[in-house]
Each structure stands twice: as C-alpha cells, then as structure tokens.
Amino acid sequence: MFDSLQNRLSSVVKTLRGHARLTEDNIAEAMREVRMALLEADVALPVVKSFIADVKARAVGEEVMGSLSPGQAVIGVVHDELKKLMGAHNDALNLAAVPPAIVLMAGLQGAGKTTTTGKLAKRLKEESKKKVLVVSADVYRPAAIEQLKLLASQVGVEWFPSDPKQAPVDIARAALDHAKRHFFDVLIVDTAGRLAIDEAMMAEIKALHAALNPVETLFVVDAMQGQDAVNTAKAFSETLPLTGVILTKLDGDARGGAALSVRQVTGKPIKFVGVGEKVTGLEPFHPERMASRILG
Ligand code: GDP
C-alpha cells in the first residue's frame, strides 16, 4: 500500500513522542520510514541513501538529541534537508550574453526536448518580448525537424531550416549566423536524442556545445523516468557543463522523485517543469511545491 512521506513522518512523530531522549534504534526506525517514503516517491536509491545519511548525521546531533521534542526535530531536519536539496527559490533563465543568447537543449529521445523548445520559445517571445529563432540539429529524424517547424509556426517564432545532409554542428553554425545577421535575441538549438545513453550522441552534443558556447545548456528529462532519471542525468552532467534542468510530464502521475534525484546528481537548478503536451504547458519550477508533491 502506498503511504505518503507525510503519513510516515506522522507515525514516526507518534512513536518518538514519548521519548525524552532518542536512542539509535528510534532514529534508525525513523530513517527506515523516510527511506521507504522516498523510494515510493520514485527517488533514485543512491540519492535516497545520501539523503538519509545527511539527515541521520544531523538527527544524532545536538539539535535533535538535545531537543524537547525529538520526534518533531527529526521531521524538521527531513523537511529542511528536502528544501535544501530542492533549491531555495526558482532560478530564472539566464540570457545575459551578447545576442543572440544561445540555449542548447539536451536529453534522451522522447524526453520532451522538441516540445519544450517550442514552449520555451513561446515564453521568451510573449513574456520577455524576445525575438527567437529555433533550429533542430536532429539530422536522424526528419520528423523531428518538421515537428519543430510546426511548433514554431504555432507559437509564432522563426524556424531555421536544417538540411539533414549537413552535420549538426554546421546546421547550428548556419543558424547562429542567420540569428546574428537578423538580430535575434535568442537562438534555441534542439538536438538529437537517443533512446538510451549513447557515446555517439554524447560526442555530438559535446561538439555542438563547443561550437556554440551556449549561455544555457538545459537538460530535459522525463519525470516519469523515475529511478532511471539518475543515470541519464549523471551521463549528461558528466559530458556537458549543464546550467539547468527542465523536468517534463509532471502532469502525469509521476511522484516527483526524479526532481530530487536529478537535482542532487547534477547539482543544477530545475528551471522549468513541463505540465502538458500543449505549448502552454511550461511553468517555472517551484521548489516548495515539488517538496510537497514528494511529501505526498
Ligand atoms: P524529444 O524526443 O525529446 O524531442 O521529445 P518530444 O518533444 O517529441 O516529446 C515526446 C512526447 O512527450 C510527445 O508526445 C510530447 O507531446 C510529450 N510531452 C513533452 N512534454 C510533455 C509534458 O510536459 N507533458 C506531457 N503530458 N507530455 C509531454
């Protein structure tokens, strides 16, 4: 039976309430509950382990052991660490670059890169009044290029035609040249994903990064990936100097554990969340809301 972290924590408080002092056993039991709840919220195991280790280190410390209500103090530590991990506030997109500011989209196939490129272009155009150019460097899937073209026309931004016979780096360079000559504020470069981590894909996106020197390199990841998100995030963050994360498909029934995993593994802020297939389905990330989602 699914039990939320909140419920589990309440039962921990009840168990611990009677104790003026906590024993190692009390704390171990509390940590078991926290561990179960995080795993149920789909947080990756290595992330759960390090989270528990942090909480435990603080829980056996003075602030909890010396507290008048140790149960509450443990809960306080859990909340606190969760917030710390999730980031204290929303991090906006950084476009502080000589125009055009380049945004590079990275992630596996199906993560939502192309859709998110369209959504982001719409936001930048409507809210920041930016002149946006989008281009697809996905030479393997002509359908992906067409999909971006369609999205660009839907949101009313310019789309740069890519020739699938060209190398991704050449396409991106041509788009950048066009953006410079026509005074675009932002160039968003959508890239080719693969179904799984693949060396050729990583080499390709690394080359794109080196050629473009983007001000934002955003890792797009599907929240439904749950436990697997951590390996994907690790591979991308080891290959690229990521500047932020976009967590997609949060309108589904994902518990949000991927947010915690990805945040911890990359150390980079989640900047936006995808909340629907439509071009309007992109929202700034709110750490507090995500913490509540994980807490259940
Ligand atoms: P890409 O291969 O990374 O470019 O992924 P796509 O942008 O083609 O998206 C893959 C699928 O996920 C498409 O069917 C999208 O409509 C869907 N998708 C993307 N973002 C979201 C989201 O936030 N919510 C939902 N429900 N679907 C999404």
UniProtKB/TrEMBL annotation:
Major location (coarse): cytoplasm
GO annotation (BP), single: SRP-dependent cotranslational protein targeting to membrane
Keyword ATP-binding set for record: no
Record EC number: 3.6.5.4
First-level EC class: hydrolase
Residue ranges constituting the SRP54-type proteins GTP-binding domain according to the UniProt record: 269-282
GO cellular component terms, semicolon-separated: signal recognition particle
Keyword Nucleotide-binding belongs to the record: yes
GO MF terms, alphabetically ordered: 7S RNA binding; GTP binding; GTPase activity
Annotated localization: Cytoplasm
Binding site for GTP: 107-114, 190-194, 248-251
Keywords: Cytoplasm, GTP-binding, Hydrolase, Nucleotide-binding, Ribonucleoprotein, RNA-binding, Signal recognition particle
Catalytic activity: GTP + H2O = GDP + phosphate + H(+)
The organism's place on the tree of life at top rank: Bacteria
Assembly: Part of the signal recognition particle protein translocation system, which is composed of SRP and FtsY. SRP is a ribonucleoprotein composed of Ffh and a 4.5S RNA molecule.
Record remark on domains: Composed of three domains: the N-terminal N domain, which is responsible for interactions with the ribosome, the central G domain, which binds GTP, and the C-terminal M domain, which binds the RNA and the signal sequence of the RNC.
Similarity comment: family membership: Belongs to the GTP-binding SRP family. SRP54 subfamily.
Function according to Swiss-Prot or TrEMBL: Involved in targeting and insertion of nascent membrane proteins into the cytoplasmic membrane. Binds to the hydrophobic signal sequence of the ribosome-nascent chain (RNC) as it emerges from the ribosomes. The SRP-RNC complex is then targeted to the cytoplasmic membrane where it interacts with the SRP receptor FtsY. Interaction with FtsY leads to the transfer of the RNC complex to the Sec translocase for insertion into the membrane, the hydrolysis of GTP by both Ffh and FtsY, and the dissociation of the SRP-FtsY complex into the individual components.
The protein's name: Signal recognition particle protein
Organism of origin: Chitinimonas taiwanensis DSM 18899
Lineage: Bacteria, Pseudomonadati, Pseudomonadota, Betaproteobacteria, Neisseriales
Name of the encoding gene: ffh
Residues of the full protein shown: 1 to 296 of 449
